[in-house]
Amino acid sequence: MSETNSAAETVAPHRYTAAMAADIEARWQDFWDAEGTYEAPNPSGDLAGNPELAAKPKKFIMDMFPYPSGAGLHVGHPLGYIATDVFARHQRMTGHNVLHTLGFDAFGLPAEQYAVQTGTHPRVSTEANIENMTAQLRRLGLGHDKRRSFATIESEYYKWTQWIFLRIFNSWYDTEADRARPIDELVAQFESGSRPTPDGRDWSALSAVERADVLSGYRLAYASDAPVNWSPGLGTVLANEEVTADGRSERGNFPVFKAKLRQWNMRITAYADRLLNDLDGLDWPEAIKLQQRNWIGRSEGARVDFPVDGAGDITVFTTRQDTLFGATYMVLAPEHELVERITPAAWPEGTHAVWTGGHASPAEAVTAYRKLAAAKSEVERQAEAKDKTGVFTGAYATNPVSGEKVPVFIADYVLMGYGTGAIMAVPAHDARDFAFARAFELPMRCVVQPSDDRGTDPSAWDDAFSSYEAKLVNSANDEISLNGLGVADAKAKITEWLKERGVGEGTVNFRLRDWLFSRQRYWGEPFPIVYDEDGIAHPLPESMLPLELPEVDDYSPRTFDPEDADTQPETPLSRNADWVNVTLDLGDGNGPRKYRRETNTMPNWAGSCWYELRYLDPYNDEKLVDPAIEQYWMGPREGQPTGGVDLYVGGAEHAVLHLLYARFWSKVLHDLGHISSAEPFHKLYNQGMIQAFVYRDSRGIAVPAAEVEERDGTFYYQGEKVSRVLGKMGKSLKNAVTPDEICAEYGADTLRLYEMAMGPLDVSRPWDTRAVVGQYRLLQRLWRNVVDEETGEVTVIDSEPGEETLRALHKAIDGAGQDMAGMRFNTAIAKVTELNNHLTKADGPLSRSVAESLVLLVAPLAPHIAEELWHRLGHTESVVHQDFPVADPAYVVDEAVTCVVQVKGKVKARLEISPSITDEELEALALADPAVVAALGGAGIRKVIVRAPKLVNIVPA
Question: What is the CATH number for 898?
Fold first, then answer.
């Protein structure tokens, strides 16, 4: 504590100090816990026996799951938690039944990385971190219903994560019904013959393996061999959403490469249209909606088949099917499954030397190039490199509109992640194709008339010409001509022609890929899947859930060489043979059989895909959630057609990770009838970030911010000059300030006020420990307005306040109440401060009614001091559930305002008038004012401009 505060303590024994704040805050936190002050009743039982409570509107308020870090909290972490707490408290006081709680998203890589380094079991370190963070959060006085809290690592919780996975595994998407349905209904269609099998055979004629393969093509959770994002540094695969724009892992910033592995996937692409369309009904920031729309990436175009002799068709998706006559070669992604099939044993006669890359055979060229491409990230492959690379496969495909044989290349600028992993190259009208064609001496054909004077010979151009406004040229065969048509008409005409001939059709493509759901790690939810001796995946019956993680001796995943097809990653679970190889009776009528367990684990996103539902019904071991409880808290209602949480607060960095995944899970559960809400989060609010100055020495290494000295605008650490930039706050940057430090110096209520007063909640702002004292002094003045610092006695009196005080009070109530409801907490605090300052300057003690209103006004922001003062004022019930003050409109409106009257732009009079005066009344008053009459001097009036109640401007004739 500072010397000033210490000195004040000796003078005033009952002054509000950090020591007093610590005592008050600890006492009331204990009281709230003992009394269950923040426990939100559920509709089953609790509300039924309490008609008054049942009549209240509900409000479900959530924060994004915190991960229990070993470093604990710094002051930037609680920003959103304090904000939702203030909002939740205000909602309780304005008549709502509020559910507000917080759990922990506790599976994931940090604890496992720590286990690899130290040998400490991830559960041990994670639970210790949870205990520490829980204590830190409790100290802030957050009003959480602690009965509903949990961690995703609890088997009682992840039992239901596994249960949901099995529901997804046992479902398929019926495109005609536009919803998910149980897989048994699909099997029944195959058995009855109402749905033909892929090869036309009867379902009964298929072997068990063949049936499993057919169903895998429909299941919403399925395993497949596919190119994946492999991160050697993490020893696991990553979903597309977990790879940053520069081709590195979102966690840890490790390089990411492509590899081919058998992995579990979620068929999120089946929901692409619904995920896109339902954004319109959500109250989310437009920036987040835009990110999701871009990530889903819906585009309309056409599927076109290019036949390859003896190898089937190469199918492309294009949004410029109007340029099909200009396609002079094709490019496949190096990973494309057709590459091996179409690659011949020898180079075709007359193969251009530059196409071969100097290799003796197509197979040798393809193999070498694939290795080069695998060593690059997707970002590196997509970079606008000056020199385009690729190699001829030795195969030719047939352009379906011209009949021309076009060479097929592989090149790293084509990715499997978009479209079909194959493109028709129209070099005259695409910059990348143009550069590739120049590098490999490929033909170019102009089929869109340039709008400039470059002519129609692409060999003379400096770059491609691309336009949606120009007309088509050189685009005709014996059956169809697009010449002279605009792009839209040409697209429609060629699409119809393709469909009639069975070589293509109009279609919609999405950038969104299926969600890669496997991780080669230990610390995650085990898959409730076993494999029989034929390799068929079988779900565990519900009675065998939860499938718990076994103990292992080594937490390290063993990496592999993605260029060596004979190697596979080895997961920690795979080394526990007793757990992996089991004999089970799955209750399917086959009796006990030998099985092999799935040895991958689910990603850390799994547990956070549905946690809002567990908050509703945390002890239900019979159902995912009681339908009546889910309907009450999250069901659709007026203004929320798809249901969901009323307010969800968290960082914008989860726009296409957690938020997209959680929406997918909700839609599946909704389709299958398990929940009434089709969306998890109706209103989303992204809080900003608390930043801090980072100080670096001449080597660029961060130095402890607390030990930096400032001299005349220059900064020094241990006598050496250091640089200063504003950035993130964190332990590694040596600029972290913990909430414990601030609570010890000033108290939790001061910290709460300061974080809310720093600026608008959705804007990032710099931390300044020196400025915290301002909110500390506000609380000291508040205390002094109610309590005598010498005696500790309450000083309020039972008398009516004066009109000036009533106006100040009701303006503060009106303004701060609206600000809290709108989450404008910084301006709410400003209004409370203004009121408190007014009362501090008033002569004599406060009226009891004013003091009580002041305490209620402060209660959502600084709950500990408010609770203490409320009880000192003689109340026995908690301030938490008191009614928020209601402003009297008569005192909110100013009694009089000053109106300026101008003649020829110069002020001639000032009128004291009612703020509700009409334009007509104000004009009459202004024209009758003696000073205005004198200024006009009998001149006529050309115009009178009235801006009631503040301005009248008179223009003489």
Answer: 3.10.20.590
